[in-house]
Structures are given as C-alpha cells and as structure tokens.
Amino acid sequence: MKVIKTQVGIIGAGPAGLTLAHWLKKHGIESVILENRSREYVQARVRAGLLEQNTVDIYKHLGLADRLVREGQEHHGVYLNFDGKRIRIPFGELTQGRNITIYGQQEVVKDLTDAWLVGGGELYFEASATKIEDFDTASPKIHFEYQGEAGVLECDFVAACDGFHGVGRKTFPKGSFNEFSITYPFSWLGILAHVAPSSEELIYAYHQNGFALHSLRSDKVSRLYLQVDNDDHVDNWSDDRIWEELSIRLGTEGWTLKSGPIFEKSITPMRSFFTDNMQAGRLFLAGDAAHIVPPTGGKGLNLAVADVKHLVDGFVDFYKNNSMKMLDNYSTIALKRIWRAQDFSNFMTTLFHKQDEHGSFQYHLQKAKFDYISISKAYATTIAENYVGLPFEAFE
Predict the structure, then answer these.
(1) Percent of the chain at pLDDT exceeding 70
(2) Which positions are annotated as active-site residues?
(3) What gap in Å lies between CA 77 and CA 167, rounded to an integer?
C-alpha cells in the first residue's frame, strides 16, 4: 500500500484545490493533491469564464496571472436588455475601479496545473479518493486508489475541493448540516462558436421567447446561451435555429449578431445548492463541494477562490500561531459571502428569465426592476458591486 504524508491533503484539482495548494506553498505549508479524473479531462472541462476583481488580484499576488493578464479581457461594464431596450452598467465608475476579466476556467486550471507541476508539486491524476477517516482527530487519512493500487494520504487537515458528487461532503456526519436547494424550471443551451464577439461586453437579455446571454472567450471565440426547457435536447437545435433565436432575443435597434461555425453545444440545468456547514473536525469543504449557484451571476469559480482565501487564513494561523480559532470559524466567515452570492445569482436569474406568460404579473414585476435599474444609480451600483465581487473586508 502506498503511503504519502503531508500537512494538507487536497481532494480535487479544479480551481479551488489548485489555488489552495499554490497559496499554501507561498506560506511554506506542504500539500498533496488527489484528482480522480485524468489531466486531459480536467483541463478540457468548459466552465465559467468570468473572474471577479478579487480573483484576478489573488492570482496576481500568487504570481500565476501572466497568461491571464496577457490573454484575458478586462470588462468595465455589462449590457442589460429587456424587450429590446438596452442599458449599460459601468462597473469601474460605480465601484471605484473594480472590474471583471473574461478568461476561461479551463485556462485557469491549465495555468495552475502547469505551474504546480513545474514547481515540483505533488498531484496524482486518476487517483480516486474512496474514504476519509479519522477527520475528527489530529491525524486524518484519505484512502485512495491509484494505478490499480490502494493508497493512503496521511495529513493534518483534509480540504475537500471535489465537487458536488465528491467524497468530502458525503463524509460529513448526519445531522451536522442542513442543505438548501432550488431547481429552476429552465435550463441553458450553451454554445461555443468560431466567430468574433458581436459586443465588447456581455449582454443579458429578457425576451418573450426566453432569456439569452452573449458572452465570449476570446477575440475569435464567442460563448452564447439560450433559455430552454429542462427536458429539451441539443438535437432539437440546429445551428441555423440557434443563431436565429439568439438574434431575436438579443436584438436591439441598430445592432447585429455575428454568426459562425458552432463547435460545441450543451444543455446545463439551472440550480442553486449549498450546505450551511463546511467543516467537520479537520475536514473542510470548498467550492462546488459546498455550494452551487446558477451561472447567471458568474459566481461559481469566484466563490471557490473566496473559500480558499478563508482556508488559507486559517491554515496559516494554525501553522504559524498554533491556533485553531480561524479554522473553527471557517464556515461562519465563508457563508456570509455565499449567502450574498446566492441572493445575487437568484436575483439575476429571476430578473432575466421568462418565468410566466409575457405580460403577466410576474413579467411586470421583472420589467419594473429593469426600469428602476435604468433610472437609479443606487440600484445600478448594487448590481455592479455584486457583479465585480465585494471586497473581502466587506464581510469582516
């Protein structure tokens, strides 16, 4: 049996696990990462592409932002459409210079993986964590399988950054947490296309046919979404039908949507989930293992990185000061931002998705919110602050 020893055992080589490993290394704290998928699979997963100001600042601080700065696209605002009327929320102007950067999550993972391995960090791909034991003691153990053999990772702490279906959350004792979830009555049909973006900034659009979003990945690749029924299938959507519907839903007077070859299509359910306890003994959850938000607010990756920030604070306090105080308060601290992000994500989702008949009471409530955004600097500022990410000190 293979036995590995380290200070922090990390399950999952997504943004949360990799960011945590790099940040701990900066403080001289050792860690080992176990990832049940292959390197190729992890680096090919297309996920969110919106980085908050906090997240960009963290990667710059860690010396991991060279390609992000070079290839990422900083956005200073966002467009909101309602029934063909378009307004703009100017981020920097309303938040004292805070903005967002468009840079694919898979690119973040590539950068962090490359840097970790080049720096000699231990990362075991296709190493499936099967059980976490003794997490209520000072010597937790992660049992795993690697290359057909059983292994044990002995550590001081376990950071489960292993997603919704991972072993981390499943290990928590029954009765030690409550779960909250919402399944929305619609999904997103997302596409990637070889075509230059039709807008220099994102466009969120309500239309009587349903929601649409214009995003991008680079100056040559566009990322776009359409609201569809939960039981819909990509086979029902030809390329021509997708472009026609996007043009209708995103359309405003004098603006034209560019079309091009679609090279990826997928349907993503819209849901919210989180647990109100992210720690059990010396086992801690971070990222999707603890919470999922609908992508409307762009908070998924950014919440994971925020979790890591609080974990790092706690681990540094322990190893430098022999104190568990900050780790013991991890859930309390992290949940403040998670609740805020859940609320904002729900707000953006319910504002722009068609939920009832066009012209219904629900529709007029949505329109009233949009109309208020267009005339109230205070309301627009609220959206801008949440969108670019509130500073960490706001929750202290």
Answers:
(1) 99
(2) 75, 204, 295, 299, 387
(3) 39
Kind of pairing between the strands at 8-11 and 31-35: parallel
Contact between residue 111 and residue 95 where contact means Cβ atoms under 8 Å apart: no
| pTM value surpassing 0.70 | yes
Q: Can you give the CATH number for the domain in which 7 is found? A: 3.50.50.60
User: Do residues 73 and 216 make contact, with C-beta atoms less than 8 angstroms apart?
Assistant: yes
Question: Where a domain ends, among 235, 251, 271?
Answer: 271
SS3 assignment, position 142: strand
User: Which range marks the domain in which residue 214 is found?
Assistant: 180-271
230: domain CATH number?
Answer: 3.30.9.10
- Between helices 377-388 and 361-375, what is the axis angle to 10°? 90
For residues 267 and 296, membership in a common domain is answered with no
pLDDT for residue 2: 87
Q: Tens of pLDDT along 186-242?
A: 999 999 999 999 999 999 999 999 999 999 888 899 999 999 999 999 999 999 999
Beta bridge partners of 149: 146
What confidence score (pLDDT) does residue 14 get?
95
Cβ(208)–Cβ(354) below 8 Å: yes
Contact predicate 243/259, CB 8 Å: yes
Same domain, 131 and 185: no
Number of domains in the chain: 2
Name which residue leads in pLDDT, 47 or 311: 311
Residues 257 and 300 in one domain: no
Cα separation values, 137 from 4, 158, 313, 353, 392, Å: 18, 11, 21, 47, 31
The verdict on 43 and 133 lying in the same domain is yes
Tens digit of each residue's pLDDT (9 = 90 or more) over 335-366: 999 999 999 999 999 999 999 999 999 999 99
Tokens of 241: 């039908």
Same domain, 237 and 171: no
